[in-house]
Write a structure and sequence with these properties.
Length: 239
């Protein structure tokens, strides 16, 4: 009972904050705070240019960025503590609570460290006996991968589950663990001599990223402006 009361009270307070920000912004005051959630690869690729541009346009606005998978953000979205998130999503129990606007798709591939003994493998089957690190099984994209492995009839040995993008990359770079990561990492100059894409013939599922927000939310003018910048940058990077 106390938990339900706390959640209800938190939602009311966040809605009051948002209403106050909206009123001030419509009166011409370019201030307030925006709270957003981003998937790790979005934070790495899409976010920097968008946030820099937004900050140049609205230097008085504070932006809080939470990084992670959608399931880690559900409660904050519900309570209004996050204004929106850009993340992957697997159809399920949240369809009635949130709106989902498709922004872009990203291809994924199997990665290993440079010099890995399996670096020249040409099929997933050849990689099944190696050690793997994967994103949390609670994640949306992981569910798509599970379907892919079910069709193959075998699943990799996932001994390490990484909750963060950076820990997954670090482990792959400095060990013999394999993982499935965004293809764009193969073109990252910072990773060029550390990571290699394994040229398997199977095509892995693409990850679809959505703008996700509460269905009953009316965004403030500044939050709407930030969303517009994310939409534009999405079209430029992923036409």
């Amino acid at each position: 009972m106390a938990k339900v009361f706390y959640q209800h009270a938190s939602l009311i307070l966040e809605e009051l904050r948002a209403a106050q920000d909206e009123l001030l912004q419509r009166q011409g005051e370019q201030a307030g705070q925006i709270n957003i959630g981003l998937g790790a690869s979005v934070a790495r690729s899409l976010m920097p240019s968008v946030i820099c541009r937004f900050h140049q346009q609205h230097p008085q606005v504070k932006v809080r960025i939470m990084e992670g998978q959608l399931l880690a953000m559900i409660n904050e979205l519900r309570q209004g503590e996050l204004d929106f998130t850009i993340n992957t999503y697997y159809p399920g129990p949240y369809d009635h609570e949130f709106s989902f606007e498709k922004l872009f798709e990203k291809p994924f591939a199997v990665f290993a460290r440079a010099g890995h003994p399996a670096a020249q493998a040409t099929s997933l089957g050849e990689l099944m006996d190696h050690h793997w690190t994967m994103p949390t099984p609670r994640g949306s994209y992981f569910k798509q991968l599970q379907e892919c492995f079910e069709q193959l009839g075998r699943e990799p040995k996932v001994g390490i589950v990484c909750e963060t993008f950076s820990s997954c990359i670090s482990l792959v770079v400095k060990s013999d663990f394999l993982s499935i990561l965004p293809v764009e990492l193969g073109n990252d100059p910072l990773m060029a001599d550390k990571l290699v894409m394994i040229p398997i013939r199977e095509v892995l599922p693409t990850a679809t990223y959505y703008l996700i927000q509460r269905r009953d939310t009316r965004q403030t003018p500044l939050t709407a402006s930030l969303i517009t910048l994310f939409r534009r940058q999405s079209r430029q990077l992923f036409p």
